[in-house]
User: Which sequence fits this backbone?
DNA sequence: GACAACTGTAACTATATTGGTTACAGACGA
DNA sequence: TCGTCTGTAACCAATATAGTTACAGTTGTC
């Protein structure tokens, strides 16, 4: 969802978007979007403005925002985690398996981060464009649509 | 938990373990263990036997079981997933973001699988041994403990 | 200055997933 | 045939995430 949101904002260039517009594209509630935007703003990926002409837009160029930035902004845990309750401390395996598994989890997390660090929002937009031109309109093949006006929905 | 279970069995060599013994090391309920063992048995990683002298043990040598085998046996999904409800089909971003994100998720999953495929249960046991010898006993530095007898608990 | 349209945020509800528990049928060795 | 296991169903509990309602605070506009 977070990648979707930032992709929308890149698509909208420097125009700022309201949480309700974003929510319509993501197909969820505006509050869910605003919650996420707060997290993204804390990580300096978007800037938001309150008030009647408020809204949010990217804080940096799309090529300067990686999926790793987004992942770290909205996810607090790695992809795997250990037993929810600690194993038996009186078993030689149980007492030490966590140490070994944490090494493995670190390796996994590094691999994931390596992939995400090499993909930017600009890349996502680039990969999106061919889909859009074939999927949406044969009438205006090269024209960017007014993506987010409320009339579209 | 699954890695813990198979590590225990590797530690126990060819001795077959009862679900209750395993549950004690993992610190959970024997039924949770049996459920997991059924999944592992379907993937031919363990063999179990019913009856009064029953129990489970590894179906292959520890060096022939990778963490990827285990992951695929017990996890049905990749590490990330898409929006729980599909985005707006009338938005050019919403309608196609899933396609692009699925490519990314495939890249991430491949990276994770690459890491897991290169670690075997034997590796885990090897990494465990130094911990055990320092952590458990200075009396019997090189001796493997009777890990799983009920008396240990 | 009053109003309308936003964001930020709290509090609550809904849903899904996972783990834990109880119970019991069936397998199997002694 | 009895005791001790596994396999499995059914249910409960805990957790995490998404969705909802409500409202205070901000800001441009008239």
Assistant:
């Amino acid at each position: 969802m977070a990648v979707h949101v930032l992709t929308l904002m890149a698509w909208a260039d420097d125009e700022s978007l309201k949480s309700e517009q974003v929510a319509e594209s993501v197909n969820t509630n505006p509050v869910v979007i605003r919650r996420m935007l707060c997290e993204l703003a804390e990580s300096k990926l978007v800037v938001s403005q309150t008030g009647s002409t408020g809204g949010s837009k990217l804080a940096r160029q799309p090529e300067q925002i990686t999926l790793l930035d987004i992942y770290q902004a909205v996810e607090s845990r790695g992809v795997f985690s250990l037993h929810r309750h600690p194993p038996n401390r009186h078993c030689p395996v149980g007492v030490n398996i966590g140490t070994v598994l944490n090494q493995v989890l670190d390796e996994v997390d590094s691999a994931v981060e390596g992939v995400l660090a090499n993909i930017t929002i600009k890349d996502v937009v680039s990969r999106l464009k061919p889909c859009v031109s074939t999927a949406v309109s044969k009438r205006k093949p090269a024209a960017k649509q007014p993506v987010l006006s409320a009339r579209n929905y």
About this structure: The CA atoms of residues 19 and 31 of chain B lie 8 Å apart. Chain B is about 50% helix and 5% strand. Strands of chain B lie at 46-49, 55-58.
